[in-house]
Amino acid sequence: MSVTMPSNPKSAPAARGGSVGQSVRDVPSHRSDFPILARQVHGKPLVYLDSANTTQKPVAVLERMERYYREENANIHRGTHLLSELATAAYEGAREKVRGFLNAKSTREIVFLRGTTEAINLVATSFGQAFVKKGDEILITTMEHHSNIVPWQLLRERTGAVLKVVPIDDRGEMVFEEYERLLSDRTKLVSIVHVSNALGTVNPVKRVIDLAHARNVPVLVDGAQSTPHVPVDVQAMDCDFFAFSGHKIYGPTGAGALYAKEKWLEAMPPYQGGGDMIASVSFEKTTYNELPYKFEAGTSNIAGGIGVGAAIDYLQAIGLDAIAAHEHELLVYGTERLLEIPGLTLVGTAREKAGVLSFVMDEIHPHDIGTILDREGVAIRTGHHCAQPVMTRYGLPATARASLGLYNTREDLDALAKGLGKVREVFG
Ligand SMILES: Cc1ncc(COP(=O)(O)O)c(C=O)c1O
Q: Residue 364 carries which DSSP code?
């Protein structure tokens, strides 16, 4: 499910909490699950509107990770003792939770990694080594995060491949006709963001994938910003690769996963060499471990993987549909509140949006906006959001960005609007 924004945000309808029943009203009650939200900053209650950057962590995740270190800590896959068995069961249990979260067919298709960035680098390196040569094309869009640009540029340097970029329009939607035009017999892979972190745009990934598959072109979906907000089903989507980060879904930093169809993982060479990824080693020849371990060299982030599993349990207990509906309600409300502020322009007004309010205010530098809001206790991000080509597209050096999580409330958005009123006062 994705959210649909009215074409003119100024005419955004009032919140539609009623449409999904109880769940929408229930979500804010989970706020107390996040201890950090009770703290003050600069003597003011914390209003956290930076979840696209990283989400806060619920007690359930903190406790599960602590329990692992207190009661189960051992290395996985190689011990004969009880603790190693417990740690292995917890880690592999978390892999099964990731499989269920994405609705992958098998845990053989789930590779635990540091997060989205490492997942895309793995594909660029291993898929690139196996399948990409000089003159082949990789297709991305203007709205990609740097982590879905630079790995392909590195591949370009290694192979002489060509990077093609689908433009976006003024709203921040990909120009689909251009995508159709750029997709060609030379295209080796399409790599596209599901939800833009800089604009909030939800891309029509299913249409993107169907069109690419009609030409036998595989598709990677960067799910860093979709996984916290909307249910994902990789089989229904039929993507070939899907990357996400634990820390964006209320889990720990430094842990995330790559989903890849088994046929690709079988065909791709290992990404890194080391312990755990081998079946046998001699100086003459090394054979590789079965999937997914072939792609998990060295001691993994065991606590991190277990923490991601706990975060998935947490999200699923609330329900991704309920979270999406709650955040949609806030997005509509926040859009209305921001548009009341004189001189404020929203950057990114796609018809399908999730969780992100990027904006600029006349000549006021976004860093000044962020600093004044911080003194009011309101945490947002300012800058290029690791998406500099988006800024270039709009002729801006930076934007201010408020981004939503399941714990946010209308009061948070009221505090943002009040803080922006202060910004107005200071800058006249
Ligand atoms: C759309 C998108 N892709 C990729 C990333 C990179 O994620 P990570 O730094 O967790 O690897 C981010 C992080 O902000 C993102 O928003």
A: B
C-alpha span between 148 and 419 (Å, rounded):
33
Question: For a pocket test of ligand 1, which of 144, 197, 353 has the largest count of ligand atoms closer than 8 A to its C-beta?
Answer: 197
Residues 267/294, Cβ–Cβ less than 8 Å: no
Q: Which of 50, 55, 117 to mutate to test the pocket of ligand 1 (most atoms within 8 A of CB)?
A: 117
Bridge partners for 381 per DSSP:
401
Nearest alpha carbon to residue 170 among 204, 214, 201: 201
* pLDDT tens, position by position, 233-257: 999 999 999 999 999 999 999 999 9
CA nearest neighbour of 128 among 294, 269, 274: 269
Rounded to two decimals, the pTM is 0.94
Taking alpha carbons only, the member of 259, 294, 302, 233 closest to residue 116 is 259
- 386 catalytic residue (yes or no): yes
Residue indicated by tokens 């996985």:
76
User: Ligand 1 atom closest to Cα of 54?
Assistant: 14
Tokens standing for 280?
């046998």
Q: Ligand 1 center to residue 116 CA distance, Å?
A: 6
What are the pLDDT digits (tens) for 54-102? 999 999 999 999 999 999 999 999 878 999 999 999 999 999 999 999 9
Could you give the residue ranges of the DSSP H alpha helices within 281-387?
A: 302-318, 320-339, 366-375
